[in-house]
Each structure stands twice: as structure tokens, then as C-alpha cells.
């Protein structure tokens, strides 16, 4: 399927330059509206080079349009070409989205949509891989866990190469059911999970006060409201004179970098939070201000902590602002930009890599905690872990008690 799309990439170029080629190639002097138009040698050479470079694509396009046994929709041909062009980059985070797909992605960023509440990514094995289920959503309650491979949705096979198609199948009207085919590490056979869709209204921040007056803030992902909600929760805890803070980033798949930076600004002193570098080596730094809370800090992470949550944990670790506890994070160290197009469609593409303050890029490796603690096997797949069994949280409390 992908190879067919790649073969159509030239359709885009064809649409843009065919008219100019017809006007210039082989005609140093052209006629337009009864007048002679003379072009320069450099212009002639330029379009001759284009013709030579894309001649194969032009030829194949013409052949399909003239010889395929049915009439071909040229607009569909162009759409397929664009999709193929983005897929040929070989980066699962670089993709073209139709108008419908782009609108749905923007809806998810704003924090509300109909579906099951599972964040997925293309795995290295080509399968749709769960980064993490979103807290208190149908996916989490159904037992979906980080690392699960989704191989089918309602009987239709899905793959990481067409991630947006898989996401579209999982979404739907609240109250309807969807069946996922799952492959899980450690199990010999795939199994099915039936999930009832809901309106996913994300509440990304919640807080509590634990023993010894230790504050606890859980961030499930970074959407447009997360930084504002975090500040409100943090202010409420500080008014209660908490003695220390546990920041829980477990199963946080990331989100908006801007929100992560705002939150880091509340926790760190004056320093670099993260910096990015593009292909030209241009560096852009995000820095925090001098003012910040000055209490002991512990951060909980696991293999479901990805992207923006790794940036926050990495900054805290690099400057020794707090103790990182749990297991090695997911390992996504690439930065994407999203661009809308005039027809309502859009695309996302990897624009740069990000680095922790010490210059570490964690893509593919993740962030190792200061203290490695695994959840017991019997509670690892539980959707809501009893705090009395949460060994990672208990370790964080223990660490903070020693610092008080």
C-alpha cells in the first residue's frame, strides 16, 4: 500500500509545474495571447532540469490517467501522493492529515472527544503501540496498559503505518462499543477487549495531601488547560503549608511543550529547562525564572511517561532539583510542529530534537530514575492502584521524609 502511494508522489509536482513546463520546455520562444514571450537561458535550463528530474513521475501519471481501465479521480491521486510523500520520510511522527483527521486531532488537543481515552504511537515493529491509557477513561478501566499492541479494531486489522486510521476506528459516539484485538508482552495469544466509548473530557491535574503533610500532584497529560490547573492546585497545596511535593508523571504521554515549560517554571530556579536543535544546528532554549517553590521534590515516572513529561523530569534530574523515582521512561526526544492548510487539512512534522539541560537526548533510551522501583506484578495491570500497594509512591514518601 505504501509503495503505491510513494509512486504517486510526483502528482503534487505535476500539478504545480506541468503548466510551466508545457510553456517553456523545448520552446525558447513561446507565444502567449498573440505576442512573443522570450525567456532567459537560466529559466530554460531550470525547467529543463525539473523535467529531467521528474520525468518518470510525469510519465507514470500520464500513463495512469490515459490507460487505467476506469477514470481516475485526480484529486484522490494528489491526496495519495501527499500521504505517500509524508510516509516516505520514515518518521511515524511526521504525517499528513485530511480535513477530518486534522479537525479531530485539534479537538483532542483542546481536551474533549468521543472515544476510549488511549494514547497510541507507531511501534518499531510497525504495530499500534499504547503509550498509556488516560487516567479514569474507558481504556484504563478496561485494563489497557502501556506497551499493549493493538492489532485490530472491530475486526479490522490496523497498523502503525496508518495510525490515524486506527485512531479514527477507536473513536466514535459515546455509548457505543468497540472491540480491540490486543497483543501483550508475556502472553502467548492475542485477546479481545470490549470497551464502551465515552465523551472524554480530560481533567489532567488532580492533587491531595498525604502523610507528613506531603503534597501530591498528578498530571495525566499536557493539554491547553494543564498549566493553569497545575498552578491552581499548587497554590492550594502551598496555602496548606505542605512540607514537600510529589509530582506524579506516570503514564503521562506528553502533549504541549508550552504547558510543560510553564509548569517547570514553578518548580525550578533560573536555568535552562530544555533546548531544541534543528537540522541546521539552530538552538532554541526555554528558561525558567528565578522565583519558584522551595520545598523538597520527588517525581514519579514509568515507561508510560513520554515526551513533555520526560522534558520536565529530565530538567528536574539534570539540576538536582528533585529525586526521580520509578522506572525508565518511554524515550521520545523529538519535537513536532502542526501546520494547518487552507483547505482545512494539515500536517505535523518533526522539526527538531530536544535536549535536557545537560545536553542529553533521550530519544529511544528514556530517562533512568535516581531510584529504580517497580510496581509488584500483581498490581501492575490494575487500573487504580491501592496506595498501600503502590511501592513507587511509598518510596517517594520515604525519600521526602528523609529530607524534611
From TrEMBL:
GO CC entries: outer membrane-bounded periplasmic space
Keyword Hydrolase: yes
One GO MF term: endopeptidase activity
Top-level lineage group: Bacteria
InterPro entries, A to Z: ClpP/crotonase-like_dom_sf, CtpA/B_N, PDZ, PDZ_6, PDZ_sf, Peptidase_S41A, Tail-specific_protease
Entry keywords, A to Z: Hydrolase, Protease, Serine protease
Residues covered by the PDZ domain: 105-171
Cross-referenced SMART domains: PDZ, TSPc
NCBIfam families, A to Z: prc
Family: Belongs to the peptidase S41A family.
Name by which UniProt lists this protein: Carboxyl-terminal processing protease
